[in-house]
Amino acid sequence: MEKTFLMVKPDGVQRQLIGEIVARFESKGFHLAGAKLMSISKELAEKHYGEHDGKPFFKDLVDFITSGPVFAMVWEGENVIEISRQLMGKTNPKDALPGTIRGDYGMFVGKNIIHGSDSPESAEREISLFFKEEELLEYTSSIKEWIY
Ligand code: RTP
Ligand code: MG
Description:
Blueprint: E1 3-8, H1 10-14, H2 18-28, E2 31-38, H3 42-48, H4 58-65, E3 70-76, H5 80-88, H6 101-105, E4 114-116, H7 120-130
Bound molecules: ribavirin triphosphate and magnesium ion.
Protein name: Nucleoside diphosphate kinase
Function: Major role in the synthesis of nucleoside triphosphates other than ATP. The ATP gamma phosphate is transferred to the NDP beta phosphate via a ping-pong mechanism, using a phosphorylated active-site intermediate.
GO molecular function, one term: ATP binding
């Protein structure tokens, strides 16, 4: 089953949106494989956002993502990568539709509440950056026939 890496950014944690955000992915029917509240080192931030190294916003992005705890998660389900990006909404909250996480809670592009992997390759890379294999659990739900 496909997996993705999602992360409530420091602004979302400080605004006490962890529960609200987890609820959206649970309600959609996805399956939580792993989660933890953690601090990100500068080194990990630079690796995670490596594709943006050299861009004008890179330093602010690294400073922001290391400024406070994040809530890192791995979610599982069919097409979870693409559907999660839809649930998150566009990168800039001014373009994100109401009903999406960024559309409902975000105000600024630099503080847009949540991160989500954008492809199978980045999902695999990001999951292995943030989680050890033993931190991802396999378990079944009693209503497994209807949800992931
Ligand atoms: P993310 O990686 O955090 O899930 O966001 P994304 O895929 O929607 O957007 P991406 O292009 O990967 O950009 C990563 C983060 O960099 C910040 N950003 N600032 N000032 C700017 O023009 C600008 N552009 C991007 C955003 O916080 C974005 O989430
Ligand atoms: Mg991205």
